[in-house]
What we know:
Blueprint: E1 2-9, E2 15-22, E3 31-36, E4 41-48
Antiparallel strand pairs: 1-2, 1-4, 3-4
Amino acid sequence: MRDLVILACGDCKRRNYTTTRNKKKQQEKLQIKKYCPFCKTHSLHKETK
């Protein structure tokens, strides 16, 4: 049931993290505030394809 998703930084658009989510329970795209090692700041990471 859980699918693998890739999280990309909202500032530099680099793909930094992977995580899983249940697509049946959570319909909208995942957004998490995480640390970006390239920007060296905490920024909003959004789900990409």
